């Protein structure tokens, strides 16, 4: 069973930066997608960024140019570098690994709170 452990959330002022990490306890190189989602209190869940096995990465429009998704295969770790943070980035952030094609399931981290003050 794959477990994903996230870290790096916290409180930051607008314009600041945070880096989220998501480390898997097992190899996930056979999986097809690695992503970060965020959940707002009122409006539900949004996919922030996703990278697929060929390295292609897609970002939601609101974070383009500010957030960078990085994947370190050797460390089984997914990162989300968040720069120029805005109050509207405040949410709980979750990492996700899509292994549906190879294992019939996907995996989620426990979530980490990011709060951006104005």
Structural class: mainly beta
- Biggest beta-sheet profile: 7 strands, mixed
Cα radius of gyration in angstroms? 14 Å
Q: What gross morphology would you assign?
A: globular
The tally of helices reads 1
Number of strands: 11
Provide the succession of SSEs: EEEEEEEEEHEE
Distance between the termini: 40 Å
The proportion of residues in beta strands is over 45%
Residue-averaged pLDDT: 95
- Spans of at least 5 consecutive residues whose pLDDT stays below 50 are none
- How much helicity do the residues have? under 10%
Describe the structure.
The protein has 1 helix and 11 strands. 3% of the residues lie in helices and 56% in strands. The mean pLDDT is 95. The strands form 2 sheets. Strands 2, 4, 5, 6, 9, 10 and 11 form a 7-stranded mixed sheet that branches. The relative contact order is 0.32. With 118 residues, it is mostly beta strands.
Give a concise summary.
This protein has 118 residues and is mostly beta strands. The protein has 1 helix and 11 strands.
What's the arrangement of secondary structure elements?
Blueprint: E1 4-7, E2 10-13, E3 18-24, E4 33-40, E5 44-52, E6 57-59, E7 67-72, E8 77-82, E9 91-99, H1 100-103, E10 105-108, E11 112-117
Parallel strand pairs: 2-11
Antiparallel strand pairs: 1-3, 3-8, 4-5, 4-9, 5-6, 7-8, 9-10, 9-11
List keywords for this structure.
mainly beta, 11 strands, 118 residues, 3% helix, 1 helix, four-stranded antiparallel β-sheet, 56% strand, seven-stranded mixed β-sheet
């Amino acid at each position: 069973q794959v477990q994903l452990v996230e870290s790096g959330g916290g409180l930051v002022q607008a314009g600041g930066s945070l880096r989220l990490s998501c480390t898997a306890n097992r190899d996930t190189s056979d999986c097809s997608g690695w992503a970060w989602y965020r959940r707002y209190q009122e409006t539900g869940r949004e996919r922030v960024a996703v990278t697929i096995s060929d390295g292609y990465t897609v970002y939601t429009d609101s974070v383009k140019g500010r957030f960078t998704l990085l994947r370190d295969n050797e460390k089984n770790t997914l990162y989300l570098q968040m720069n120029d943070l805005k109050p509207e980035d405040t949410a709980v952030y979750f990492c996700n690994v899509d292994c549906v094609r190879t294992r019939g399931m996907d995996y989620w981290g426990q979530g980490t709170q990011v709060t951006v003050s104005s």
